[in-house]
Specification:
Blueprint (H helix, E strand, L loop, with lengths): L5 E3 L21 E7 L8 E6 L2 E7 L5 E5 L13 E3 L2 E3 L6 E2 L5 E3 L18 E2 L1 E4 L2 E6 L26 E7 L3 H9 L4 H4 L13 E9 L2 E7 L6 H6 L4 E7 L3 E8 L2 E13 L2 E10 L4 H30 L6 E3 L4 H19 L10 E6 L1
Bound molecules: FE2/S2 (inorganic) cluster (FES) and fe (ii) ion (FE2).
Length: 367
Amino acid sequence: MPATETTEAPRPDTPSRGPSARDDGFLRDIWYFAMPSGDLAPGRMLAKTLLGEPVLFGRGDDGSVFAMRDICPHRGIPLSDGRFEAGEVECCYHGWRFAPDGRCTAIPSLTADQAMEVEKIRVATYPTVDRHGGIWVYMRADLRSTAEPVVPPPALPAVTDRAPGMVQRMTFPCHVDHAVIGLMDPAHGPFVHTSWWWRTRKSIHEKAKRFGPSDLGFAMLRHQPSRNSAAYKLLGGTPTTEIRFRLPGLRVEDIEIGRHRVCGVTAVTPVDEKTTEITHMIFWTVPWLSLLKPILAPFARRFLGQDRDVVVRQQRGLAHNPTLMLINDADVQAKWYFRLKKAYAAWRSDGVPFENPVRETTLRWRS
Ligand code: FES
Ligand SMILES: [Fe+2]
């Protein structure tokens, strides 16, 4: 590809149309990271807006997790205003009760002779799984459907089966597309993440990385990370790292240092069209890393905060709906993201079989 080729970035406000990509530019019929597992204790429920939809999450006393539309099918009050008792959700208005699978189990106002098939009343539910440190939810295109998910939830390295050593979260005031391409953008590092402990602008140099297609996304193939990252020096040995991106907004950095593993998971989840939640979790097997946690946590937070600050400033320009550019090769990952999204949306809305548009290649840039 010639280095001068530019492509206009698809705008978040003009996504491909179809049931799985509504006007909001969010992919549907796909798994999203909803929250860290620890947010939802047994016997509790928690309401969240995801992709502009009100979702009520709950966890039974046995640890099992469920999610349902947070709207009572009777007269529309949020079910989260009610209570969770004996494994069922009770609406605060007229006391209708719902099981985790969405079936209505009780309508208190019915008299003994008022026959009504209450179990035929249902709240829409969302498939959920609790693994890799988080609760993942399958956001359906058609809420009335009860079909099995068309893709499995993400499979992450085994180290993520333990509790995350560190969890950071932040809300970015932007559309999910800008959060995703901002986080995968390799060229902003020397300008946005300038800190004595990470790197300086002077450390900018040419990089060449091998990329290839991976499950619903692409991977920066396993390599030795660049030596200008102080964080890697701390780990000792010769680490190798592989970074995967998976639709709709998951970045997994898998670092191997001898027999040890460190895995960084960044999940990007749309709350609504102007709000995006970023959750960053780090899992490790290196025992002494836990001791460093109090020192590392503020740095990780500062790093993510730098990404957010730049997005906040970007909003001032985006408010005027400018034409944007994606250049080679620094923005090629962003181009892939939009192509992958388009291919997935076309599969779900028009039945065009999903084919990963990414081919193995080397990308070069200076950063
Ligand atoms: S509105 Fe929920 S029971 Fe009536
Ligand atoms: Fe960044």
